[in-house]
Model the fold of this input.
Amino acid sequence: MACVSIQGGSPLNGEIHIQGSKNAALPMLAACLLAHGETKLYNCPHIRDVYNMLKILEAMGCHTQMHPDHVTVDTSPALTGEISEADASAMRSSVMLMGAALGRLHYVSIPWPGGCCIGKRPVDIHLKALEAMNVCIRSSDRGLECQTTGLRGSTVDFPYPSVGATENVILAAVLAEDTTVIRHAAKEPEIIDLCLFLNAMGADIHGMGTGCIIIHGVKRLRSIAYRVMPDRIVAGTYLAAAAATGGDVTAVDVGTRDLGPTLDVLADMGCGIVLKNRQVRVIAPPLLLPAECIHTQPFPGFPTDMQSQLMVCLTAARGTSVICEEIFEDRFKIVPWLLKMGADIGIEQNKAVIRGGTPLHGCAVEACDLRGGAALVIAGLMAEGNTLVGRPDYIERGYEDICRDLSQLGAKICKV
Ligand code: UD1
Done:
């Protein structure tokens, strides 16, 4: 069984280049379906989720190629909207392909998305909005079958700013007749990047980054070359690792504004933060301060995708911290492993109370989800002795090579 082996105790120091964003690249790969011809995405991360998305696009009929510095998706061949269970099994859900497939093919059939390891993740907001855009949705044992006689713009009012639903509606709306307005839309930076990409293809989208996105439908999109934004969660993970190990790390080629919510928490914990051009430097204090109460929230709140990494840092703080997970029901799965390593953490429903100042000791632990896996690696860096993190495949869903990156910063880490 593969695992990540970490010899803890070395502070991280130095500069690290940050890979392209997973959460921007995946909807962009889906968006390629909307243009006839070959689209090139530069800075597309070499991660499992991207490989799996390319596999599904291939199964739909696209020709895809992964090069060292870019990915190409050619949608000229005949395409199918039938996504089988076998094709979709590699990814949690093919839901993010719905809007784009409907825009291109007016039809898509996908297996049930189902729950995943961080929570239930329903799709009701996606479906209600697509129905308002003249999509007929039939559910059966096999999954969801969606068909339209022509997408029509509509005003959709989300009960919650779902990232995935915002992306799906945007992708359905760009080639729809008339105008679509999304009220209570998600404001995540990855949504802005998706809209900039679509506008460069010829779409007419306004208001991205605000709670109200307006999409005027256009007749066609052209294929282009585009550079995916850097990954703010990967950058946040390495900066949190610097804070946790008493280090001094500069993340290079990052969107400094996008990292704001994470940097605010690190600053409250006593870290020095230096912003310069597209670089962020985090300098750990001699002793981390506790965080009074961190609530995970949609952007520009503190990201749920950074919650596990910060929890690990807070085990080293002098005092008690509280984290409230407000987005996903099941995102404290690393806690039993942290207890095994010597942490003192209590859970009450969606609230974790971390009594800091407990040194961690190395042992065998297992990743249960992508960000939780990265957080366990940080715990290994902080711990005395050797830590083995099992199921590195979870981590590889979102990190190109966490061992390569952390070794570059002085960590004693390798995959065994
Ligand atoms: C979420 C995160 C995103 C992160 C991604 C991967 C937020 C707001 N979203 O995006 O930043 O990158 O996970 O970890 O932080 N929901 C419904 N019905 C729906 C859709 C969503 O009830 O149809 C609920 C979900 O159960 C969840 C919340 O809305 O509690 C946020 O979900 P959503 O933003 O859609 O999640 P992702 O797009 O997966």
Summary: The pocket of uridine-diphosphate-N-acetylglucosamine is lined by residues 23, 119-126, 160, 162-165, 188, 298, 303-305, 327-328 (CB under 6 Å). The chain has 14 helices and 25 strands. The first strand starts at residue 3 and ends at 7. The CA atoms of residues 343 and 358 lie 6 Å apart.
